[in-house]
UniProtKB/TrEMBL annotation, chain A:
Pfam families membership: MbhD, MbhE, Proton_antipo_M, Proton_antipo_N
Keyword Membrane: yes
NADH-Ubiquinone oxidoreductase (complex I) chain 5 N-terminal domain span: 60-107
MrpA C-terminal/MbhD domain location: 614-679
Superkingdom of origin organism: Bacteria
Organism this protein belongs to: Virgibacillus alimentarius
Domain MrpA C-terminal/MbhE: 693-769
Transmembrane domains' residue ranges: 29-53, 74-97, 103-122, 127-149, 161-184, 196-216, 266-287, 294-313, 319-343, 355-379, 414-435, 456-475, 502-525, 573-591, 603-623, 630-650, 656-675, 696-717, 723-743, 750-768
Membrane-topology descriptor: Multi-pass membrane protein
UniProt entry tagged with the keyword DNA-binding: no
Protein name: Multicomponent Na+:H+ antiporter subunit A
Annotated family: Belongs to the CPA3 antiporters (TC 2.A.63) subunit A family.
Automatic annotation (TrEMBL), chain B:
Locations listed in the record: Cell membrane
Keyword list, A-Z: Cell membrane, Membrane, Transmembrane, Transmembrane helix
Keyword Endoplasmic reticulum: no
Family of the protein in this entry: Belongs to the CPA3 antiporters (TC 2.A.63) subunit C family.
Protein's UniProt name: Multicomponent Na+:H+ antiporter subunit C
Superkingdom classification of source: Bacteria
Classification lineage: Bacteria, Bacillati, Bacillota, Bacilli, Bacillales
Main location, first listed in the record: membrane
Membrane topology: Multi-pass membrane protein
Length: 777, 112
């Protein structure tokens, strides 16, 4: 199974090579094979006798992070959607994208997305799922920004990435919480331990984080704002990522985790209310749109809301309707996006106000659009799959269980009305989409191109999808037992197989459907009168503005903050770095209880040492207060020689010798440069700067003392020095242990040290000798 | 005595840092010198002070001072000599080229 997931990514490596011959053979024909093979590989699992399959490949077993692929009914549904729609989209893109486009990049992104999306739906390991999840966001970003020379494309790409990755990170936090609670990284393992999760105090937090991830990905209100802007992507991408697959990842996540959370009442409340609000808001907004793809985008938002609501209900009917609608939505919405792409391609515009009367030019496209839109509207005809799932949706809204919570009961009361309300607008925009484009006045002179029917290859994909709409519409039970029942079962374990029938008798859901159609027709016919009403809400106020304001505010403030400390003064940087080190280390020392002072086992104090220490201290302070450069250099020499004396006292003859030599050379060097350096000036800073510098310096010095004392006072490890003392003679063949360590045991180190000195010498030489070549400038 | 040496190391580092934060190049160079002295003493306190003989092996003596900090310090002395002399010359050259040794005048804060 891992091969099936990774093959698109592997193949993507060859795409740049293949795309070299794009003018002879369109790259899409090569790519087409990949999703089709994956589709064939997975289609064989469809059948009534299907049982889940698991495949594990180790990645980081010590952290519990493995490629743990788990294929159950739900994953199978998604895998087939991803590979099936993927095949059709690639085929469609062959005719949609001209060979003058950067095809190599397009297909690399698309294949990357395919792997990512397959990974999301197949991973049983939450962290692997997260990695694939973010990969879908990234590939979506790249695909939306494919025409990167458009300002709107870049804006849409950035917006979608910011929102979905924000959600992804939040979901990651939720996963970490669940892993901490259950001690496992496997989703199935979590489902087995759902009682522990439901008892945990972190439950609301974990649920909130995960739902935030799902809602942002699936464009739920108020995070839906990225989806309409994502329509800047090439239409095949919109059809694939932003309607059929990626936006359904959020639904998948909710469905995956609903066995865990469904026992928790707030799961029902939050998911259902967000879903139902999104349904109403999306379909309401869709009616106002004039761009064909914008209509479809808001329509997708509303349909996603509807599925989300059903997953929230969690009853047997609702869950079945949800998985059924995921399939149906992919078929009719995918075909409608392709139809919109065809119209755009053949007429040069997507503005519904300019279009009209296209049925006589594009009869096949019109037929496809008719079936697609009517299926979306839920028109009660026995050969449209949209009607079945919509009616199941109505049925599920009527059979909700009352709970203990007042909010739940309120929701249960109003949900059926909201469902009908949202569906009325769905009906209106679906009908508008078809009749607005294909019937009415022809205004050919307004169109950039003369319309004609699309090439056969371009029509092929939508035809296949619409055939799916009709086949499922005519024989809904064809996909039911072998396929959907398994998917529903993995969401709601208590699910039992049920026949789908067109005619149930005169029931309440049918009545609701008829109300929708009735009011919808009236609203559509009188639509010009309602324009003013549609404009009233949301008026000037929209979530896009909120997004823009947030983004601008962050921009301004981060600019201000950055400018406040990145002022070009190296001294300020130094003070900030040291000050931060001081604070962080001190806090860490105190928190971990690292400060210890141990008065035992100390060497005794002698007058000689004390006087040397005093001399060094005075000399060190003197460097600060001296305003004479000669004095300052000599005082620094005093410090150096003082340290050398200390080395003598502490039985380090080699150190003392080296220090004496080096110190002498250093002072000599200082004196050489002395002549050329300006005289020291009085320190003329303000008291404030002085005190800041002083406190940073004193704080840092005190911290180092504290660390030295603590390190000396605690004894965590045995010293390794004995090893050197014992083996110096036998291994190194020398009696001076320090020399043996430097030359033998750490010989390479010393070699590099010499190298460093050599480089420094070269640098010094060239700094002195190199003269700026005035004429070269 | 170890505590006193630790404090001395702290004092050297504090004065070094203070000099480092000054405007004049020469003071900064002096600061780095002080800083390395402080660091050497800091490493020295990690071993035990004044225990036993210098680490030069002789018969009949089993008690030596810790050779490891000494080896590290020896490396460090040489390296810090290299660093100090390099930045000293760098400071000289900078002051010569730019006709100033004031860090505030040397800063480049144009953004692009």
């Amino acid at each position: 199974m891992i091969f099936a997931v990774l093959i698109p990514l592997l193949f993507a490596c060859f795409v740049p090579i293949i795309s070299k011959i794009k003018h002879k053979v369109h790259t899409g024909f090569f790519v087409f094979v990949i999703p089709f093979m994956i589709f064939l590989y997975f289609i064989r699992f469809v059948g009534t006798g299907f049982s889940p399959i698991r495949d594990t490949y180790n990645w980081i077993p010590s952290l519990g992070i493995n490629f743990d692929f788990y294929l159950d009914g739900l994953s199978l549904l998604f895998v087939l959607l991803i590979s099936g729609i993927g095949t059709l989209v690639v085929l469609y893109s062959v005719y949609y994208l001209d060979t003058s486009e950067r095809l190599g990049q397009f297909y690399v992104y698309l294949l990357m997305f395919m792997t990512a999306m397959l990974g999301v739906v197949l991973s049983d390991n939450v962290f692997v799922l997260y990695v694939f999840w973010e990969l879908t966001s990234i590939s979506s970003f790249l695909l939306i920004g494919y025409w990167h020379f458009n300002e709107r494309s870049r804006y849409g790409a950035l917006k979608s990435m910011l929102i979905t990755i924000f959600g992804g990170l939040s979901m990651f936090a939720g996963f970490i919480l669940l892993t901490v609670i259950t001690g496992t990284t496997s989703i199935q393992g979590m489902i087995e331990q759902k009682d522990i999760i439901l008892d945990s105090t972190y439950l609301p937090l974990a649920l909130g984080f995960i739902l935030l991830g799902a809602f942002t990905k699936s464009a739920q209100f108020p995070f839906h704002i990225w989806l309409p802007d994502a329509m800047e992507a090439p239409t095949p991408v919109s059809a694939y990522l932003h309607s059929a697959t990626m936006v359904k990842a959020g639904l998948f996540l909710v469905a995956r985790f609903s066995p865990v959370f469904s026992g928790y009442e707030w799961f029902f409340i939050v998911v259902s209310s967000f879903g139902i609000v999104t349904l109403c808001w999306g379909s309401y907004m869709a009616v106002r749109q004039t761009d064909l793809k914008a209509i479809l985008a808001f329509s997708t938002i509303s349909q996603l809301g509807m599925i989300m609501a059903m997953l929230g209900f969690g009853t047997k009917v609702a869950v079945f309707a949800a998985v059924f609608h995921i399939l149906n939505h992919a078929t009719f919405k995918g075909s409608l996006f392709m139809v919109a792409g065809i119209i755009d391609h053949e007429t040069g515009t997507r503005d519904i106000r300019k279009l009209g009367g296209l049925i006589s030019f594009m009869p096949i496209t019109a037929t496809l659009a008719l079936l697609g839109t009517f299926s979306m509207a839920g028109v009660p005809l026995p050969f449209l799959n949209g009607f079945y799932s919509k009616e199941l949706f109505f049925e599920s809204t009527l059979n909700l269980n009352e709970g203990m919570n007042g909010v739940t009961n309120f929701l249960v009361q109003i949900v059926p009305y909201l469902a009908v309300f949202g569906s009325i607008f769905t009906f209106v925009y679906s009908v508008y989409f078809f009749f607005g484009v294909f019937t009415g006045k022809k205004n050919l002179d307004k169109l950039p191109k003369k319309p004609h029917e699309a090439p056969v290859g371009m029509l092929l994909s939508p035809i296949v999808l619409v055939l799916g709409v009709i086949t499922i519409g005519l024989f809904p039970n064809l996909v039911n037992g072998s396929f959907l029942a398994h998917a529903a079962q993995s969401v709601n374990h208590a699910f039992e197989y049920k026949n789908i029938q067109f005619w149930h008798g005169f029931t309440t859901p049918l009545l609701m459907s008829l109300i929708v159609v009735g009011i919808g027709v009236i609203l559509y016919l009188t639509r010009t009168k309602w324009d003013a009403v549609y404009r009233l809400l949301p008026g000037n106020w929209s979530f896009n503005k909120v997004y823009n304001v947030i983004l601008q505010t962050i921009d301004t403030y981060s600019n201000k903050v950055t400018n406040a400390y990145m002022n070009g003064s190296v001294r300020t940087y130094m003070a900030i770095i040291l000050g931060t080190t001081f604070i962080v280390t001190l806090v860490f020392l105190l928190v971990t209880d690292g400060v210890t002072i141990n008065y035992d086992n100390l060497a005794d104090i002698t007058i000689l040492e004390i006087s040397v220490v005093l001399i060094i201290t005075i000399a060190a302070l003197g460097t600060i207060f001296s305003n004479n450069k000669l004095a300052a250099i000599l005082i620094l020499g005093v410090v150096g020689y003082g340290v050398a004396i200390l080395f003598v006292i502490y039985r380090a003859p080699d150190l003392a010798l080296t220090q004496l030599v080096i110190e002498t050379v250093t002072v000599a060097l200082f004196l050489l440069c002395f002549y050329h350096l300006p005289q020291l000036r009085k320190r003329t800073e303000s008291i404030r700067t002085k005190s800041i510098n002083a406190s940073v310096a004193i704080g840092f010095g005190a911290l180092m003392s504290l660390i030295a004392i603590s390190a000396h006072s605690s004894n965590w490890f045995d010293t390794i020095s004995d090893y050197f003392l014992e083996t110096a003679l036998s291994i190194g063949g020398g009696t001076n242990v320090v020399n043996v360590i430097l030359v033998d045991m750490r010989g390479l180190d010393t070699l590099f040290e010499i190298t460093v000195l050599g480089i420094a010498a070269l640098a010094i030489y060239s700094l002195i000798k190199l003269k700026k070549n005035e004429e070269a400038d | 005595m170890e505590i006193i040496i630790s404090i001395l190391a702290g004092i050297l580092i504090a004065t070094g840092v203070y000099n480092l934060l000054q405007k004049q190049l020469l003071r900064i160079v002096i600061g780095t010198g002080l800083l390395s002295h402080g660091a050497h003493l800091f490493i020295l306190t990690m071993g035990k002070l004044k225990r036993g003989q210098p680490p030069v092996l002789e018969d009949n003596i089993t008690n030596y001072t810790d050779p490891l900090p000494q080896a590290l310090i020896l490396t460090s002395i040489v390296i810090s000599f290299g660093v100090t002399s390099l930045i000293l010359v760098l400071a000289y050259r900078t002051a010569n080229e730019n006709k100033t040794d004031n860090m505030e005048q040397l800063r480049g804060n144009e953004n692009e």
